[in-house]
């Protein structure tokens, strides 16, 4: 995946993975800015439940506005696979922050 394009976003490196997909750092070649692009793993592309959860995540994220929540910039499909493009925010993940804190 590294070095390939999804639409006009050039994949640079993998930055995370969760239950819903894999997130990559990419370069928006039209606007010359870094973005985060989330792709679903190929093994869930035919699972309608997973696809609906991904669509719900996109809708929910797109209506929120807060300094610690990344903005959704774009959505689409590439080779039949859905993707979501988000603002790239540098820093620790929530998982990392929780692991560093003692409760």
Question: Can you lay out the helices and strands and say which pair or pack?
Answer:
Elements: E1 5-6, E2 9-17, E3 22-28, E4 33-39, H1 48-63, E5 72-78, E6 81-87, H2 94-100
Antiparallel strand pairs: 1-2, 2-3, 3-4, 4-6, 5-6
Structure explained in plain terms:
With 103 residues, the protein is an alpha+beta fold. 22% of the residues lie in helices and 38% in strands. The protein is built from two helices and six strands; from the N terminus they run ββββαββα. The chain has helices spanning 48-63, 94-100; strands at 5-6, 9-17, 22-28, 33-39, 72-78, 81-87. The termini are far apart.
The string of secondary-structure elements, in order, is EEEEHEEH
Number of strands: 6
* Uncertain stretches: none
The rounded Rg comes to 14 Å
Q: Helical amount among residues, as a percent range?
A: 10-25%
Structural class designation: alpha+beta
Task: Please tell me what the overall shape is.
Answer: globular
Largest sheet: 6 strands, antiparallel
User: How would you classify the quaternary structure?
Assistant: single chain
Structure summary:
The chain has 103 residues and is α+β, with helices and mostly antiparallel strands. It has helices at residues 48-63, 94-100; strands at residues 5-6, 9-17, 22-28, 33-39, 72-78, 81-87.
């Amino acid at each position: 995946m590294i070095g390939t394009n999804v639409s006009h976003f050039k994949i640079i490196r993998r930055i995370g993975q969760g239950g819903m997909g894999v997130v990559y750092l990419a370069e928006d070649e039209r606007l010359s800015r870094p973005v985060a692009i989330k792709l679903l793993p190929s093994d869930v592309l035919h699972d309608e439940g997973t696809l609906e959860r991904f669509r719900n995540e996109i809708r929910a994220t797109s209506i929120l506005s807060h300094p610690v929540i990344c903005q959704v910039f774009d959505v689409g499909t590439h080779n039949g696979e859905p993707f979501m493009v988000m603002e790239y925010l540098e820093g620790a993940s929530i998982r990392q922050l929780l692991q560093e804190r003692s409760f």
